[in-house]
Amino acid sequence: MDVATVPTRKTKGRQVEFLLESALKALLAQPDARTKTGHRNQFFMILMYDTAARCGELLNLTLRNLRYDDPRPVVFLHGKGNKTRAVPLLPETVAHCRRYIELFHGDNPPHKDALVFYTKNHGGNTQMSADTVALFMKKYAMQAHETLPDFPKKLHPHMLRHTRAMHLYRQGMPIHLLSEFLGHANFETTKIYAHADTEMKRAAVAKADIVRQGMPAVEPIWTDDEDIILKLSGLC
């Protein structure tokens, strides 16, 4: 199965929904990067996944805070509570970033306070909306579902953040470092990923328990033995 929807403890009805690697690759392969809009949408999802950014953090991102040409490329994300965190950029992400900036900001010397992601409106650049992101992700999810039946038909932007968090945790990132990476104000929030992974391991162990598969259930020793039943009940 290429998509995991992992139940966790009931916390205001929330669940940790995330994609496995094959499902993520299927999603990122859907945009037609030969078109300008497809290139933008693909890079948005790549950057959202790699940085585990919230949708709003990327929509508010300016060129000033996208340091892809630094010796150690980094993006500065402004999260909840007006807190800023630095997230390193991987070489492949930097390559995607350079192509995107050249395509969308290469006509004129870019202003450092210009928004990285924008839409054209009456000849000018306006901030791309969260609805736009939700719409194109819904479209790509439906396309991915056609090639990968287990892919969920409904996909929300925050799922990419959950996906990155689960992948990092499974690859061994300590939970406290993951909390810092995600910009969580409360460490308790990050624990949902550890709990989700524990539940997945429990399900996998139960499924792989071949020792007891196909074996008859163990009957209690008191079955059909009235004397033992009476003794255990303290009646004799």
Characteristics:
236 residues; two-stranded antiparallel ribbon; alpha+beta; hpI Integrase, Chain A; single chain; 9 helices; disordered N terminus
List the helices and strands and how they pair.
Blueprint: E1 3-6, E2 16-19, H1 21-28, H2 36-51, H3 55-59, E3 66-67, E4 74-78, E5 84-88, H4 91-105, E6 118-121, E7 124-127, H5 130-147, H6 158-170, H7 175-182, H8 187-207, H9 226-232
Antiparallel strand pairs: 1-2, 3-4, 4-5, 6-7
What can you see in these coordinates?
- The chain is an alpha+beta fold.
- The chain has one domain: Intergrase catalytic core (hpI Integrase, Chain A, Orthogonal Bundle).
- It is built from 9 helices and 7 strands, in the order ββαααβββαββααααα.
- It has helices at 21-28, 36-51, 55-59, 91-105, 130-147, 158-170, 175-182, 187-207, 226-232; strands at residues 3-6, 16-19, 66-67, 74-78, 84-88, 118-121, 124-127.
- Strand 3 and strand 4 form a beta hairpin.
- The N and C termini lie far apart (55 Å).
- Mean pLDDT is 83; it is low at 1-13.
Quick synopsis:
The chain is an alpha+beta fold.
Quaternary structure classification: single chain
Taking all Cα atoms into account, the compactness measure Rg is: 24 Å
Q: Please indicate the count of domains.
A: 1
Classify the helix fraction into a percent range.
40-55%
What is the annotated CATH architecture? Orthogonal Bundle
Termini separation (Å)?
55 Å
The geometry reads as elongated
The CATH H-level homologous superfamily? Intergrase catalytic core
| Low-pLDDT regions | 1-13
| Biggest sheet statistics | 3 strands, antiparallel
